[in-house]
Q: What sequence folds into this?
């Protein structure tokens, strides 16, 4: 096993902002094509995702944005007949499809927050501590410190510090989503993937999650799939627009939303289709 692959397997606590993670690019997607059986879902996608930045994936339903998101931590491996047919994905200089890569550890390094919050039917404390225990951490003081730090980072500590032993299912929808973010960052991922993280939330809860994403990008790399054009413009540094499995345009969010290069991008952002 080479040293590069070993770093993915043995050092999941390496963060995107650590000295080990040199350079600007956290994720490189190179000429990637992906199919569900005979149906091609992604066609020759190439883009670099900057470290400590927020990249938004936008486009109409079925355009491939969520498929691409799930390729980054190999969640699509669970789908029968789904496969990468061409190209590669590099996360912090490691080819994620290298046979020696541990997929379980990859998914810890590339965490995911889903559209619908999915707290475990356990206490608030145990939800955040779960990943730490799975990593083999047993020191009570270390776990307690990590849980508090993660809940503080997720702007949830002050709301739950007096009821850590109560069920997470008793939290509001917005609190549950922030709890899921705390659970994800507790294991110090390299990248955090978010698939429509605010689609089920009210405007106030959405604003809190968006503010959280913006504040955490100093420590993490975020990739956010959203149908909400306003959200993409508010939270992201760069945006990629997808249509029918192809990436139509990728660039600085401010420029794309004010002066897109491609007419189809302008039509989508302005609401002429999609």
A:
């Amino acid at each position: 096993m080479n040293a590069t692959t070993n770093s993915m397997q043995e050092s999941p606590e390496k963060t995107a902002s650590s000295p080990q993670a040199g350079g600007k690019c956290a994720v490189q997607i190179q000429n990637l094509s992906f199919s569900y059986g005979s149906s091609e879902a992604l066609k020759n996608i190439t883009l670099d995702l900057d470290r400590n930045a927020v990249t938004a994936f936008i486009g109409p339903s079925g355009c491939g944005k969520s498929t691409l998101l799930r390729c980054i931590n190999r969640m699509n491996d669970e789908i029968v007949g789904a496969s990468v047919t061409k190209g590669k994905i590099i996360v912090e200089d490691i080819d994620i499809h290298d046979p020696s890569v541990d997929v379980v550890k990859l998914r810890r390094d590339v965490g995911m927050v889903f559209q619908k919050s999915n707290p475990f039917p356990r206490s608030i404390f145990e939800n955040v501590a779960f990943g730490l225990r799975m990593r083999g951490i047993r020191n009570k003081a270390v776990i307690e410190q990590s849980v508090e730090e993660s809940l503080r980072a997720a702007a949830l500590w002050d709301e739950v510090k007096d009821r850590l032993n109560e069920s997470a299912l008793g939290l509001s929808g917005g609190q549950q989503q922030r709890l899921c973010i705390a659970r994800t960052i507790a294991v110090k991922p390299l990248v955090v993937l978010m698939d429509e993280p605010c689609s089920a939330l009210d405007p106030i809860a959405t604003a809190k999650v968006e503010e959280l994403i913006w504040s955490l990008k100093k420590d993490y790399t975020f990739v956010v799939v959203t149908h909400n054009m306003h959200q993409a413009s508010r939270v992201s540094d760069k945006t990629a627009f997808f249509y029918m499995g192809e990436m139509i345009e990728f660039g600085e969010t401010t420029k794309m939303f004010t002066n897109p290069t491609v007419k189809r991008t302008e039509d989508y952002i302005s609401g002429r289709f999609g």
